[in-house]
């Protein structure tokens, strides 16, 4: 399967300040790919640099096999992009703005506009200035989808949407994906990424620290273990190889464990326990593990310009 997006060592500095450093990942055709990290990690900078909206410092980015910097005007015709912040002409009505946006892609498809607006419960006759932040986000979603793009890039798309509307949005994205659209979904809300995406890229302080199948991260990499001791928690349990993200409260100990499950169960036989729970961690817990102090990002050795 061919790659729709390919980034190789994409780097952006703002003067001497860090933007992103050596970001590399690819997104396959037909995939819903997650791009996760907290605010300030470099998600938006990566997307804007990739789209040619800001100039890269170094590295390479291609979409549909074309160079994003030199052929961006061609590439963007088949991309639907929702930025993290949306700004519009306040005096325009929603329908006028959407018609104007659609005109850049050729014929205005009113059926498409009405269908998307109905799904998202968006009033086409209201002025932009009268809309809440959440409704402005709906306008951005419709605006990004009206031309049936081959690639949909979403940067924090659900902020401002209530839970019911978020669910409608997820269903809409799944439908677009079934019709053939590739989706890059950037978010700091990990439960959303886990719900939609098959693979995920984790970014920390401007650098990629992991690209992995979500199923592998959850099912084969770590186990979440919670132990209830009859008496005091033994320090030897906390010091075991493979133990991280430790939390303890009187006689209860919980942690993530990476390693041979037989080794950890052998250790448990040495202690008196009231209860043992071993389960799969969710993506949130794995993500926090990657952001803990004991998982530093490796320095690429690249100096600031």
Structural class: alpha/beta
Instruction: Count helical runs.
Output: 11
Number of DSSP-assigned strands: 14
Give the H and E element order.
Answer: EEEHEEHEHHHEHEHEEHEHEEHEH
Return the domain count.
Answer: 2
Described by strand count, sense and barrel closure, the largest sheet is: 6 strands, mixed
Please tell me about this protein's structure:
This protein is α/β, with parallel strands linked by helices and 305 residues long. It folds into two domains: 3-216, P-loop containing nucleotide triphosphate hydrolases (Rossmann fold), CATH 3.40.50.300; 223-280, 2-Layer Sandwich (Alpha-Beta Plaits), CATH 3.30.70. It has helices spanning 43-50, 72-75, 94-103, 110-119, 133-145, 163-178, 190-196, 214-221, 235-238, 261-268, 283-290, and strands spanning 3-14, 17-28, 32-36, 58-63, 66-67, 79-82, 151-155, 182-187, 199-204, 207-213, 223-229, 243-249, 252-257, 273-279. α6 (163-178) links the parallel β7 and β8 (182-187).
Please give a handful of descriptors for the protein shown.
single chain; 305 residues; alpha/beta; Rossmann fold; Alpha-Beta Plaits; 6-stranded mixed beta sheet; elongated
């Amino acid at each position: 399967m061919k790659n729709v997006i390919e980034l190789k060592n994409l780097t952006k500095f703002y003067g001497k300040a860090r933007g992103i450093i050596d970001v590399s990942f690819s997104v396959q055709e037909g995939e819903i790919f997650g791009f996760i990290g907290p605010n300030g990690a470099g998600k938006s900078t990566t997307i804007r640099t990739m789209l040619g909206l800001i100039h890269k410092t170094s590295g390479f980015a291609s979409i549909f096999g074309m160079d994003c910097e030199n052929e961006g005007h061609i590439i963007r015709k088949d991309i639907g992009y929702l930025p993290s912040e949306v700004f519009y002409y306040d005096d325009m009505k929603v329908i006028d703005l959407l018609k104007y946006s659609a005109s850049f892609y050729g014929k205005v498809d009113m059926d498409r506009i009405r269908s998307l607006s109905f799904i998202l419960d968006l009033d086409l006759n209201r002025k932009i200035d009268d809309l809440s932040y959440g409704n402005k986000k709906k306008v951005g979603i419709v605006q990004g989808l009206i031309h049936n793009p081959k690639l949909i890039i979403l940067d924090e798309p659900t902020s401002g949407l209530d839970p019911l509307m978020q669910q409608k949005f997820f269903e809409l994205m799944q439908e677009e994906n079934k019709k053939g659209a590739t989706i890059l979904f950037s978010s700091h809300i990990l439960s959303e990424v886990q719900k939609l995406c098959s693979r995920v890229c984790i970014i920390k302080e401007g650098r990629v620290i992991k690209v992995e199948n979500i199923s592998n991260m959850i099912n084969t990499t770590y186990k979440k273990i919670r132990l209830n001791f009859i008496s005091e928690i033994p320090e030897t349990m906390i010091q075991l190889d493979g133990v991280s993200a430790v939390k303890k409260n009187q006689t209860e100990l919980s942690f993530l464990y990476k390693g041979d499950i037989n080794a950890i169960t052998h250790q448990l036989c040495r202690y008196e326990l009231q209860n043992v729970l071993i389960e799969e961690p969710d993506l949130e817990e794995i993500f926090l593990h990657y952001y803990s102090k004991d998982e530093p990002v490796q320095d690429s050795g690249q100096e600031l310009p």
